[in-house]
Amino acid sequence: LRRALDPRVQADPQRLPPGQVLTEKWPVLHYGRVPAYELEGWRLRVFGEVERELSLSYGELLALPSKEVLCDIHCVTTWSRFDNHFLGVPLAQLAELAGVRPGVQFVEFHCFGGFTTSVPVEFALAEDALLTYQHDGQPLAAEHGYPVRALLPRKYFWKSAKWVEGVEFRSRDELGFVGAQRVQQQRRSLARGALLVAGPGGGVKLSFSGSRMEFRP
């Protein structure tokens, strides 16, 4: 849809971020294959810097008090979708049940296939942050994260990880899956001929075919 033609954008031009394209569809983007879960064996683990680790079945998760969130979603691949209705369990409620310890700064989502991503704890415990199992009145489709995905409307949508199997509360952050992939790419670039050069004051410079990038300490 064109920005100028959608009445929701006309009413609030700030609602659609610059460079985003509005769509009524829900594009499918993910790493690896779509898993086929058997709910009988599925468990959600809540662990890390907590007083009580939790291991919840799908039925136990659905039995917890739920919350509906109406939000827009924005993807870094430049699409946006307005007015999404999600139903799920507030992450803040899981944090309370597990007894999060003082000093927790990050929440890391552990997902199918070894995918991980983390966010500062204030985003995970925001009032609109959920572990969601329903979208627009229907259970999540497999390609959109069934049985459970994260919902973090205050972040770009790639942080709303699909196929969540674990929620870890951490006092320190660590590289998630995407960050680790970037490090591997940098290492491969170095192996292909990048030259490390010591800079003044202990800085490090990378030279690629005559180009140079400087990393300051």
Automatic annotation (TrEMBL):
Name listed for the protein in its UniProt record: Oxidoreductase, molybdopterin binding protein
**Which residues are listed as membrane-spanning?**
none
Query: What Gene3D superfamilies is this protein classified in?
Result: Oxidoreductase, molybdopterin-binding domain
Where does the record place the Oxidoreductase molybdopterin-binding domain?
32-177
Q: Which Pfam families match?
A: Oxidored_molyb (PF00174)
Species assigned in the record: mine drainage metagenome
**Which SUPFAM superfamilies does the record cross-reference, listed alphabetically?**
Oxidoreductase molybdopterin-binding domain
